Amino acid sequence: MSAVLSEANPDERRMLADSVAGFVRQGKDNNGVHRARAVKAGASPLDRETWQQMADLGWLGIAVPEASGGLGLGVGELAVVAEGLGGEAAPEPFVATAFAQAVLAGCDNAELVDELLGASATGDTLLAVAWQPAVASLALDELDERLEGGRLTATRRLVQPSGADVFVVAVRDENGLALYRLPCDTPGVTVETQTQVDGHAVATLVCDGVELGAADCLAAGAVGEAALLRGLCVARVAASAELLGLADRLFTLTSDYLASRKQFGAQLSSFQVLRHRAVDLYIQRELMRNALRQAVRAFDSGADLVAVQRAAARAKSRCADAALKIAREAVQLHGAIGYTEEADVGVYLRRVIALAAWLGNATAQRREYARLTRAAA
Amino acid sequence: MSAVLSEANPDERRMLADSVAGFVRQGKDNNGVHRARAVKAGASPLDRETWQQMADLGWLGIAVPEASGGLGLGVGELAVVAEGLGGEAAPEPFVATAFAQAVLAGCDNAELVDELLGASATGDTLLAVAWQPAVASLALDELDERLEGGRLTATRRLVQPSGADVFVVAVRDENGLALYRLPCDTPGVTVETQTQVDGHAVATLVCDGVELGAADCLAAGAVGEAALLRGLCVARVAASAELLGLADRLFTLTSDYLASRKQFGAQLSSFQVLRHRAVDLYIQRELMRNALRQAVRAFDSGADLVAVQRAAARAKSRCADAALKIAREAVQLHGAIGYTEEADVGVYLRRVIALAAWLGNATAQRREYARLTRAAA
Amino acid sequence: MTDWNELSDADFRAQIRAYLEAEYPQHLRHPSHRMRWHEVREWYLKRAADGWTAPGWPVEHGGVGLTPSKQLIFTEEQERLGVARAPDQGVIMVGPLLIRYGTPEQREKYLPRILSWENIWCQGYSEPNSGSDLASLRTQADDDGDHYIVNGQKTWTTLAQDATHMFVLARTDPNAARKQQGISFLLVDLDTPGITIRPIENIAGHEEFCEVFLDNVRVPKANLVGEPNDGWTMAKALLGFERLFLGSPKQSQNALSRLDVFATARGLHDDPAFSDAFTTLALDVADLSEAFESFAAQVRAGEPLGADISWLKIWGTETFGRIAELALQAADSEAVLVDGQDAGDESVDVLTLYFNCLPTTIYGGSNEIQRNILAKQVLRLPG
Amino acid sequence: MTDWNELSDADFRAQIRAYLEAEYPQHLRHPSHRMRWHEVREWYLKRAADGWTAPGWPVEHGGVGLTPSKQLIFTEEQERLGVARAPDQGVIMVGPLLIRYGTPEQREKYLPRILSWENIWCQGYSEPNSGSDLASLRTQADDDGDHYIVNGQKTWTTLAQDATHMFVLARTDPNAARKQQGISFLLVDLDTPGITIRPIENIAGHEEFCEVFLDNVRVPKANLVGEPNDGWTMAKALLGFERLFLGSPKQSQNALSRLDVFATARGLHDDPAFSDAFTTLALDVADLSEAFESFAAQVRAGEPLGADISWLKIWGTETFGRIAELALQAADSEAVLVDGQDAGDESVDVLTLYFNCLPTTIYGGSNEIQRNILAKQVLRLPG
């Protein structure tokens, strides 16, 4: 059972979870694991047909207001879908899209926001947030390349999905942090890519004197900063949910393997050491569920930004940490086969590594949590 | 086999180890564990008769030059005795005495040093180093209460043994750090005591305008500082050896218990989880041996002060850490009885806690090691 | 008399909190070790006079008759204030047992004396060679007409030295097919000839447990609870929502808060190494608390607890252990002092934290046993 | 010809170091994954021409005849420079086996071709369902007059795709009382009809292992080594001082030094949290190295290695794992990049460190098996 089902809107969320489960398991030749392997081999993580199906099911509009053509639901529903996709290691940029949408939802250029969210919810326009500076820091005050005279010369790292049609780019100007719309084909924009452990391309967005007009400004000053910070929280919680889905399946794969495999004339699951290690993985998974549940509740209950930031940092640190532990042990408990592509463990492990690091890993999130806690005290 | 036997002077060290083993196991009614329990119940850790025997065997003069009535041996031999005493949880202040002697050995007031070392080697005079400031820091530059006009008003914490006849007190004067002889009955000296986890009293030495004359000065300036630093290294290595002795016995007690005790109709040692945990304790003990061996070799080979400091910090951090791990697991693997005075585990555990913290615990030693390593780089 | 169950949870909590704040002595709050009866007697007699000895017992037997949800609030409020535990086996075990399985005579004789603390009960389950394998117990009760003759030894009997009575699992049919069979549940007056109680000193220097020797102790058959040879079933049936409290976050929360006091006084939070370690543990406690609340919600909803509750005990006790270890490291060379460490205006006692964490992974079913249970009953791994 | 054993250890080391420094190609030093034969072929043929293929074999069989002590120095110097391993099962396993148990014809046929790398051998031990329980192997060799007919499947066969020959453990007596009996040791030419080799892709994307399918493969009885049904004894007897290298500190040292490069470039050593974690690992490696030296001294003194060597493998591989995990954390969101992380003038590849650490706790006898061995053979715990 999903961690977030038992709280707000339990029935709706359960239906959604069932729908995701049904979707991701369709057909062995194109299920999530299959598509993830294809991405590792060079395919785009964006299988257009699959993406369109997800749009048609409404998932790309979950957190988009109804007025903009979305479902107007919350982080809980995003988490349900992300967990389901994680369960099948599906490579689609669902959480990255949720990140961009959440940032947009906090912006105050209503017309532009509406247009972008609408196009994103239908699957027509792929969005990505470009916010980390060249040395991929998490601290917004290290974003020191400024927008001057309406032109931006700056580098933004680790942008996902790399094939976005429109970037939501974070810049500094005289009022503080601002967010701008930046179509990928704007003159002066170069998109370089690097390959990530799971085969996904991540972009380095290089802006060389790119013109950013007032019409492209999504939000500025305090509004812009809050939009980015809140968007980061949504993304971290959605990533935590995907990590839970991945870890949960790794746990199941591993206990099934222990229960089915024999060695020295006995089932692996009869060896006490392996039984206890399986229990320790189970505990890690339970911790993930609990950390995720409180984070979703923070959003459901309309907590303020700092409370949401703390809840998101807590969820992401736990989920990143526990998922890596579970994935690593899954390899070990599978033995040699776990280290090969014969098993699915590697597909899940690579995605866990990628998501655990995305937007700040467990160590970084714990520091963020400590910082916020001390600031609040 | 002791960790340090296979290196320099193997035959002599083996004979010494045998002699210690024979000594500490004498008579059930007055062996080390028995005496340690008595100390916990309020007795002095200095059983005068036992102490005299140790003096007669030459152990109190191991590292004292032959000219001062000692054996003129090295840290390896100190370690052999300390390990042996640890094996029986003997409460005698052997390593504390070795600390004071090692500090004295680095001082340049030859006549005074000779007198104190001689009296210490015979067991007639009990020495203790008083060097930690009120907030029990390890950093010598935090010793900021100064000797002014020949008078000292200062507090020295965690001094062992608390019943010392003569303190070797570290003070600051205009030339830096100096070491002075301070008999316990000097006017202005108050010795307050606190009880330590193993029942030993530790002293807070309060000096209120105590007169310290030039005749009492053991060493000053760079010589004094080096004497204290080198003495700390000797003490840390000797404490590491005692920790090894304690941990080794805890390991043996635990594996014997597992091998002898039945539950659910089977020997505890037949449960794979417990077998593997015993193996992990064995590995910890092996690591202690290796860390101790390199430290003794550093002394044997006449390495310079920084090299000796690094080796001692490495040995102490490993031995403190591993001994605590072993002790904690020994309680757990013994089950409920391990938490009671019925078993000997608690006697060893308490001594491990005390020694692990003495002169800086594992965390502090690792920082010291990092500092020395970076300074050397 | 107030029907407490009629109150809203918030009102009930407020009233209980006010009562405890007003009545529970300051100096007994958050004790660092298990209190002896003479230390808490006055408070518990006052509570008995106010009718609060047995919040969970039915009203007709002298209890308050609280719903599980209200009982939980009562317990939470006690924990919040650090109310010391009584030698409460009579309230927790014997009362519910007699209400369910006892004869009218047994109820009439014992229940009022439990409520008034005239009788104080201890639990005679564990034996020197049974360890975690309780069903292998060897204390023997031989039929001697209208008495049983009991011989054997019990151990880890919490506060037997303060008790007047002990309930005992004893073997009445040594030839039963399974070791769980042939065990009976007996009520024993500790004044009966043949009983010797010897306190066991623990490594922290306290005497929380005892050994109890039974040498030809004559126990009237009237003191048999339930059917002969049916003791194991009854003992198991009594494991109720109290299991939840083996996984309570209180010990960890308390330990973390003591460490926080020390760290704040010593400026340790400015050291990123300490801060990272502390935050990791703070999050471990936070997730433990969240999980505890989730299980508590089950209890509130009247749902039975499953075997999965075992993970809470593992995580809670091991988190407590890690906090205690960090505290020991943080106090460095001062950690050894038995009277605690100065922390601004307060004193923090890291040694007591450390000693207190040690038995938690052993008692209440060792963490190894809990992992066995989870592997079998929750993960259903073939064995 | 130089009698290398006559040299002092220091002189020998100096000469070997000079030779390797001069001859071993720069670009092949410290490779991040196992090299294929075409990548190292040129170097090993040069070495063969210089007479250095088999430092440990006796001179009369074409080896250098080094003492164990000198062999160790040779190996240490190779490790120091990060010399890539060849597909060297012929040198390590087949040669010593034939020298000890082979027929004169077998020696004459195979030894020179091993020395010249004309024949490259791989090891056909593991099977899909045998895992750590090697003796449960099921590959069958049926007697067919002057041939065996071999059927079965081998797996985890390192670099079989580069090999010309494979030595195979196969069951020749399925009715033997113990599963270790009835196994024979066969030499198989991989060109024999019925053999299919399929590389296995590992999760880091490399093809280091293969599956080898044997379908009615005819193996001449002349290729049986030793007595029929005696293969297990021989396979075990061949485990020599190479076991030492399962516990080599080199991987950990290398990983630590890569992490150090990254940390120095990024200023991480100034962060006490990182510094504490790094120092802990540096000391773990230091104590591993000290222990390795101590076991190496045993080998140098000609003493056999005991079962206690197993702890070195556990500690070494688990330390490697902790270093890789710290590196992954240290690189934070950049850790995911497959082309490595910028570190000043260099690039550090934390992902490769991480992927490389994963199999080390599995191969060469998993760490669980090593703990079983230690519990039984060293701690002698009754089972």
From TrEMBL, chains A, B:
Name the InterPro entries for this protein.
Answer: Acyl-CoA_Oxase/DH_mid-dom_sf, AcylCo_DH-like_C, AcylCo_DH/oxidase_C, AcylCoA_DH/ox_N, AcylCoA_DH/ox_N_sf, AcylCoA_DH/oxidase_NM_dom_sf
Sequence ranges assigned to domain Acyl-CoA dehydrogenase/oxidase C-terminal in this UniProt record: 228-371
The EC number(s) given in the record are: 1.-.-.-
Domain of life here? Bacteria
Asked if Signal is a keyword of the record, the answer is no
What Pfam families does this protein's entry cite?
Acyl-CoA_dh_1 (PF00441), Acyl-CoA_dh_N (PF02771)
Query: Which cofactors does this gene product need?
Result: FAD
Q: Which UniProt keywords apply?
A: FAD, Flavoprotein, Oxidoreductase
Q: Which GO terms describe its molecular function?
A: oxidoreductase activity
Please tell me which top-level EC class this enzyme sits in.
oxidoreductase
| UniProt domain Acyl-CoA dehydrogenase/oxidase N-terminal: residue ranges | 11-97
Family of the protein in this entry: Belongs to the acyl-CoA dehydrogenase family.
What is the protein name for this chain? Acyl-CoA dehydrogenase family protein
Automatic annotation (TrEMBL), chains C, D:
Q: Which residues form the Acyl-CoA dehydrogenase/oxidase C-terminal domain?
A: 229-379
Q: Which InterPro entries match?
A: Acyl-CoA_Oxase/DH_mid-dom (IPR006091), Acyl-CoA_Oxase/DH_mid-dom_sf (IPR046373), AcylCo_DH-like_C (IPR036250), AcylCo_DH/oxidase_C (IPR009075), AcylCoA_DH/ox_N (IPR013786), AcylCoA_DH/ox_N_sf (IPR037069), AcylCoA_DH/oxidase_NM_dom_sf (IPR009100), Mycobact_Acyl-CoA_DH (IPR052161)
User: Which SUPFAM superfamilies does the record cross-reference, listed alphabetically?
Assistant: Acyl-CoA dehydrogenase C-terminal domain-like, Acyl-CoA dehydrogenase NM domain-like
The protein's required cofactors: FAD
Keywords annotated in UniProt? FAD, Flavoprotein, Oxidoreductase
Report domain Acyl-CoA oxidase/dehydrogenase middle positions: 122-217
Where do the Acyl-CoA dehydrogenase/oxidase N-terminal domain residues begin and end?
11-116
Give the family per the record. Belongs to the acyl-CoA dehydrogenase family.
This protein is called: Acyl-CoA dehydrogenase family protein
Lineage of source species: Bacteria, Pseudomonadati, Pseudomonadota, Gammaproteobacteria, Salinisphaerales
